[in-house]
Structure formats: structure tokens, C-alpha cells
Amino acid sequence: MYSRFFYCLLFTYSGSLLATTTQPPIELTAVPDTCVALREGRHCYADVVLSWQQPEVGNYCLRDATSKYIMQCWLKQRQGSFNYAFDSQQSISFELFDSNTAKVISTAEVKLQWVYQNRQKKRRWRLF
Question: How many CB atoms lie within 10 A of CB 92?
């Protein structure tokens, strides 16, 4: 009888430990995460959805990592999404941060790729 009680207690305690240690990762995702332009150096256009999810309710903001321009903030939320019209000649990184502490929680990047790269052709000039 005591052994059944011990095993029940052991399984409930170990289950509660697993529940506290297997929290979902804090993540900011960008879909699509790659923008493809035809030629190198040209602008790439895409509609990117930036979405995030947190284990606890808080005040979070999304910003451009290089210019620190704040694009969207959410108050007392656990998750959110933002539609971004990507228009750039280079890759752009985004940051999700806690607006109360200004601590960066997660980052995501939209990378740029080209179908054709510019190659310098050798031009030989002849006088005759």
C-alpha cells in the first residue's frame, strides 16, 4: 500500500517538473525569411509576416535592429503578429524586446538572395 502511494507521488512530482522545464522557446519568426530579387543590387519586394509568442503576458515591442525604429507594440499580450512590406536592397534584422526593461528577447532576419549576380565583363579595346 505504501509502495503504491510512493509511486503515485513520484509520478505526479516528476510530471510537474517536466511541465515547468518544457516551456516553449521564446521566438520571433519571419515568414518568408528569404526574399529573392532578379539581379544583384535591385530592390526585393515581399509581404513578410513577423509573429511571436511568449510564455507569459507582458508588454512587447517589435523594431528594426539597425535603425531601432519601433514598428509595433503590444500591451498585456502573450503573442502577436505584424505584416511588414519588405522593400530593400539588403537583409534586414528585427528584434522583439520587453518594453518595460528594454531587454531584447528574440531576433529574426529576412535575408536577401539574387537569381543573377552581376559579373564584370572584360572589355578589351582595340584601336585597329
Answer: 20
